[in-house]
């Protein structure tokens, strides 16, 4: 019997009929969706539940390490003038604690939840790019290990999780520690961006038929917004890290004020990432809250559209807050108010969500199980942290408490209360689905109360300490300031909190060893993941559901009932094709099936691509340029092999018959819609990178009264205009090539692509030649550093376009493209257009601004 | 009337209704920020001269704010118009109704977001009435 059965209201007893699927198909489905056995299979595995669990387990491992760092910090501060660790070691511990928790724990945990649960929540078979998920996992793992390997070599970074310049410059932080920080975390950032792309496409294009945007689970809304934020924030951080690394090891001057650079630019770039990062962690947590509250209050959520819109509004507003971390850097008053007001306004959407949750609880019949306890804990702590957040948005107050323990208290209330508590709620809620075993309620309650009480004892006194003037990041303090008792309390609380977390580990181990079976739907849940068995089969639901409600398991009597055409499609997909991993693509707005496509299967190439990525970063770390070259080769080769077309394994006639019968296209070589959206997101990432570079350029331009610096003439424009004109002409040939394949003309396609390639190469050569005549280098002034980094970016983007063009020419020669299926050509066109626009904007800035802004 | 609704034609507008307000806020925010940073560093004299007790720089921020706010309200108005148009479209089978339901949802949400962001834009600009922009 379901453990909660007695709590489920009568009208919810009858869960809908779920079609188990045709028995003859199940074995085939199981086989085609399974990962291969053995160690090679382990490296090649792509299943979303496998990858999701790996990400969660790895992030939890880092969580324990990062939590341990905080205990060392608290022991040191337990009493005044303590000598448990010295100042130097203390700096290393707080740097590791902040960096690990911010980069390697919270976000990966939420990504892990998403990759694990999203396909089941959306009623889909898989994530759209399973191999990208694998790449994301291994880059995260390797990045984390690289970062932690600094401890083995005793070169641990010690500049805090923000790595402010000039402290983090080569002059004040010489040697390897900071490079470990920049490069180890850089690899993990690449993984986060990759996961963002995959999550966006899964949510926009791979929902069950009928799951319109207004019926999508709120967790999906939260992850959709978060994934877009990931692209914006992490791309900016990656570029900031690149600039700092170049300053440290290659003599550029981006952050050096003596050579025209600006240390404040680092703060801007860091916080354009850093503040949204807080919401990148908080929004998925709210998504978890919005999933759990209805189930444990036994009623639909109040204000679904308001919550969804609050998530969107928070996503936007979170990018308008970055300078509130910089109130004490001397910004103009109007700029201060701009950021202060945006910081206060973000309380509106957060408040909307809190009131919607409270209203749901108020109108429901709460069932006090562990997940709900953690959610109530979250509500209390998050509201508290939110209020201190609005307090610090007030500029004069912020000046008082800046860099004090008040800020430490605020950020832990928001991050532990607002994010970690919902993550634990999520663990208690979803783990039984994926392990098939229930967790102990008794240990769960003990876990919650230890964490809740421990947390408040640890962090509430820090508000008082901050107001009394205790600065953060000090390794000790003298006695007699009235700080002793609060610090001692804080330390005791931290240990109670850590004990609570250990109880959770114990609970999970006991549950896996000897837990009660969970059954399909232990909580009486309303969303689709509860319609499959626990643990779920690799393919999810054998017959795709037809969604007609926001709470399908509560409000539908049959999960596959709908209009005859749709019913026919969902049943047909359970029978054919069983030779490859077929998944449905549905319309973004209307949830209508559009396409049946092949999701990529197990492959070793994503693993080798992550190995190549880590080689590039290791090569940079130890100044071994041949290793970087090897890494680039491995990445490029892996990417080409990763995307190599696969044979369908059945005849074209079968596809045509399916298309004729059901009126949706069948694409065993990959989806049109999914790959086009993937390329669009790739272009968006390049656009964000360009904007970040241009922001840096203009910011540094404003810092300098003379531009270019004295002794340097503005660059000659003749050659760059020639190169730009040639590149513009190539756009015409690219268009011509695409038109040709639309009309079925293979010959003209190949000619058009070849001409585009030749013109692109010519423009590239002319521009590189022009660079050799500039007469200045990257290291004499920020002007030179910016010139080469921006120009270099445009060149690299164009090279990417040339490589794609070359591959497409190769496949065109093999006759891969038809008038009906030439998505590769279209994607190359989109990329090429973007590369040309980036080129034009970049060189117009580099060659135009020195003339236009001369005083 | 169902016949007057051309669904493919409306394909892009739901996203515009939903995101127009936030995007206008982002543009207003970034332009205001960049403009003040530029003006306060370069300090062209014309921006320091006063009209009706406010500097030209303050006036420029207020006018920018007003334009952005009105544009955001206009997006909300378009979303409202779309919502009314969609209410009139009845009589369709269930599958078509999904698309219409989504568009209604987007339009309704667009109205909410436009209202919120019009308020945020207004509040962001108002300090220019009382504070000296650069010191």
Structure description:
The complex is a heterodimer of chains A (855) and B (135). Chain A has 855 residues and is an all-alpha fold. Chain A is 67% helix and 2% strand. Chain A is built from 26 helices and three strands. In chain A, strand 1 (582-586) and strand 2 form a beta hairpin. In chain A, helix 5 (130-152) packs parallel to helix 19. Mean pLDDT of chain A is 92; it is low at 1-11. Chain B is mostly helical and 135 residues long. Chain B contains four helices and two strands. Chain B has helices spanning 13-42, 45-48, 56-88, 94-125, and strands spanning 50-51, 54-55. A two-stranded antiparallel ribbon of chain B has the order 1-2. In chain B, helix 1 (13-42) runs antiparallel to helix 3 (56-88), helix 1 (13-42) packs parallel to helix 4 (94-125) and helix 3 packs antiparallel against helix 4 (94-125). The chains are: A mainly alpha (855), B mainly alpha (135).
Contiguous runs where pLDDT drops below 50 for at least 5 residues of chain B: 1-11
Mean pLDDT of chain B: 84
SSE ordering of chain B: HHEEHH
Question: What oligomeric assembly is this protein in?
Answer: heterodimer
* Overall radius of gyration of chain B: 20 Å
Strands of chain A, count: 3
Strand order of the largest sheet of chain A: 1-2-3
Global outline of chain B: elongated
Rg of chain A is 28 Å
Strand content of chain A: under 5%
Unreliable parts of chain A = 1-11
**How is the largest sheet of chain B built, in terms of strand order?**
1-2
What structural class do helix, strand and pairing data of chain A support?
A: mainly alpha
For the termini of chain B, the CA-CA separation is 58 Å
Shape of chain A: globular
Number of strand elements of chain B: 2
Distance between the termini of chain A: 81 Å
Portion in helices of chain B: over 70%
Q: Could you estimate the helical fraction of the residues of chain A in percent?
A: 55-70%
Structural class of chain B: mainly alpha
Strand fraction band of chain B?
under 5%
